[in-house]
Every structure is written in structure tokens, then in C-alpha cells.
Design goal:
The complex is a heterodimer of chains A (150) and B (201).
Chain A: H1 5-14, H2 23-48, H3 61-64, H4 66-113, H5 121-130, H6 135-149
Helix pairs in contact in A: 1-2
Chain B: H1 5-11, H2 23-26, H3 30-53, H4 56-73, H5 83-104, H6 116-120, H7 130-148, H8 152-162, H9 168-175, H10 179-200
């Protein structure tokens, strides 16, 4: 192991030609490895490289997304116009529903507050006329009726 | 060290391709300059992006985007840095954006390049004995594994230094880091790679 790694790395980083005797063999080995790596990268990129013919034909993201951006902008505008209308409509419907509910409730309360339905009111009057003035008399006559049956 | 592909290609091209834009070069038609520039740097940019992203399709798309940006801003290029460094700076920025976006696209299947065993097959087989070939494969695999485990910044500076063979000042210009920061990242990256190599031996 090299005793002066800082010196060695400095030598490689700066590319200085002078290196101490201790560094020289390790620097040569490290440089050789880096050289192999560079060759491999060069060959890989050469294998994958396809030259672009003309810069005017570059499919840039700006051009490719040009219509997409307009479409998105249009969609946003439409949404911005539709959403308030939709919300207003929803609010109106909710208001109408609550009014209808209130009316129905009112009607139910009115109906419940009456003793009988309006069609039965004449009968109620007749029953009121036939009914005895003393309720105790009615309760006393009930066992008599039961005794006569037997 | 092997000769730099980009430098070799640039040597055959006008100065505009290897250094700051000169007045004579500025007089050329922009499209003519661009064709030369693209011819010189396209493979280099693609190689860096492929090694960084390990995704062929993404590397190809980003290479195209890089040169589209170069094409659009060629007339405004001030020549403060070498053209190659400027092109690489655009590529590095696009790569960072892509990696940032990829974090949010977790549902996408991303191909992570060749398997480590496949990488060894990319070495020139005729120039080595079988023993040398085995050793070389192991070394390449060890460096590849170590590079995959580096942080994004460390990997970027590592690849720019040891695959693209840029010097520290060029890397600083391309990545927007300070010279000292580049050196620190490179030091850590190299330390990790060296450790992995020693483990594999």
C-alpha cells in the first residue's frame, strides 16, 4: 500500500509528469485502469452513436409538446369556465331541494296538528253531538251491555 | 494516455473548434461554423451523456438538445471559454436538469446501460492475451461499479477528467464549480475508484 496516497492522487488528478518512486508504479497501474475504462466508454458510445443529420430536423421537446401545450391550455380554460357554472347549478338545485323539503315538512306538520282529516270533519261533529256529556256514565253502562249479552 | 479524440478532430478543423472564437472565424456563416462544430463535438457530448446517464435514448435526446441550444445561441457566443468547454457546459446543465426531472418520474423504467460483465466485451480483444483480457475486464468493471456509486457531481467531474480528458480549469468552466471544488470532488471520486480497484485485485 502506498504511504502517500494524497501525493499519488494529486499526481493523477493534476496529470503532473513527476512522481516519487513510491508513487510511480501505483500511479501507472491506476492510470492504466482508467485508460481501460476510457477505452470501454469510448467503444460503448461508438457502438450506440447515431449522428444526427440536421439540427433543423431535431425533434425537440418544445416542438413535440407544442400542440399538447395548447390542448392542455384549452382544457384548463374550458374547465375554468365550466366549474363555476356547475357549482352555481348545484347550489340552485340544493336550494330548491331544501325549499321543497321545508314545504313538505310544513304540510306534514299542518296535517298532524289536525284531529282528523278534512273529509272526516263532519263525522267528528256528529260524534261530538251524540257523545254523552258525562264520560263516567259511559264507563258504567259498558258492564251492563256485557251482562245482557250473556 | 490515449490522444484526445476531440483534440485530434479539432486539430484538423479551424481554430474556432478548439479555442475561443477568433474574428476570422466569426466572419463565417453561422450554419457553416455550426456544422463543423457539431461534427467535432457531437460524439464527445454523446459519450459524456451516455456515460453519465447510462441511458442511450436520453443521451441521444440530450445531445440533440445540446446542439439545438448551441445552434440557437451561436451568434451570441462571446468566446470567453473554448467552444468545446462551452458546448460541454450546455450538456452538463441539460444532464443535471434531466437527472432532476428523472427523480420525479419514478414510474418510468430507465435502462441503466450495459451490464458490468458486458462492458468488458467492449475492450479490444486482439491486442491482449486471455489473462490480460480477464484482468482488464475486471478493472473496467471495478471502475464502472465505483463510478456508479459516486454522487452526481463526483461522477460528472470524474467522467469529464478521465473519459473526456478535460483539465481542471475546463471542468471548472463546464460545471460552474470553483477549481478547488473540482479538485476535491475529483480527489474523492478517485479515492473511491482506487479503493474499489484494490478490492477487486
Amino acid at each position: 500500500m502506498n504511504r502517500c496516497p494524497t501525493h499519488l492522487l494529486d499526481h493523477i488528478i493534476e496529470g503532473t509528469p513527476e512522481a516519487c518512486d513510491l508513487c510511480r508504479p501505483q500511479a501507472a497501474r491506476l492510470n492504466a485502469s482508467l485508460e481501460l475504462f476510457r477505452n470501454a466508454m469510448d467503444r460503448w458510445s461508438a457502438r450506440e452513436f447515431r449522428p444526427s443529420p440536421d439540427p433543423a430536423t431535431f425533434p425537440t421537446p418544445h416542438r413535440a409538446l407544442h400542440w399538447a401545450r395548447w390542448a392542455v391550455a384549452f382544457a384548463v380554460l374550458v374547465m375554468a369556465a365550466i366549474i363555476p357554472i356547475y357549482r352555481h347549478e348545484q347550489a340552485q338545485r340544493r336550494l330548491a331541494d331544501s325549499r321543497a323539503d321545508a314545504e313538505l315538512l310544513q304540510q306534514v306538520e299542518t296535517d298532524l296538528s289536525q284531529d282528523v282529516s278534512p273529509s272526516m270533519e263532519p263525522l267528528l261533529k256528529m260524534a261530538a253531538w251524540d257523545a254523552p256529556s258525562n264520560p263516567a256514565a259511559v264507563t258504567q253502562s259498558e258492564p251492563d251491555k256485557a251482562g245482557r249479552k250473556h | 494516455m490515449m490522444p484526445r479524440t476531440a483534440v485530434t478532430a479539432a486539430a484538423a478543423m479551424p481554430n474556432v473548434l478548439s479555442g475561443p472564437v477568433r474574428p476570422a472565424a466569426k466572419e463565417r456563416a453561422p450554419t457553416q461554423n455550426f456544422d463543423l462544430l457539431m461534427h467535432t463535438h457531437q460524439r464527445r457530448v454523446f459519450r459524456f451523456l451516455l456515460a453519465s446517464l447510462r441511458d442511450r435514448d436520453a443521451a441521444e435526446t440530450l445531445t440533440q438538445e445540446t446542439f439545438l441550444k448551441v445552434f440557437k445561441s451561436l451568434s451570441t457566443f462571446r468566446g470567453e471559454a473554448a467552444v468545446g468547454t462551452w458546448v460541454m457546459q450546455i450538456a452538463v446543465n441539460l444532464m443535471r436538469d434531466h437527472l432532476r426531472n428523472r427523480r420525479w418520474q419514478f414510474w418510468k423504467q430507465i435502462s441503466l446501460g450495459p451490464e458490468v460483465t458486458e462492458l468488458g466485451g467492449l475492450l479490444p480483444q486482439d491486442a491482449m492475451t486471455p489473462e490480460q483480457m480477464t484482468s482488464a475486464k475486471e478493472q473496467v468493471q471495478a471502475v464502472w461499479r465505483a463510478a456508479n456509486q459516486l454522487s452526481e457531481r463526483q461522477r460528472t467531474v470524474f467522467l469529464l477528467r478521465f473519459v473526456e480528458e478535460m483539465d481542471l480549469l475546463e471542468i471548472a468552466a463546464a460545471t460552474g464549480m470553483k477549481h478547488g471544488t473540482v479538485k476535491v470532488h475529483l480527489f474523492r471520486a478517485l479515492h473511491a475508484v482506487r479503493k474499489r480497484l484494490e478490492e477487486s485485485r
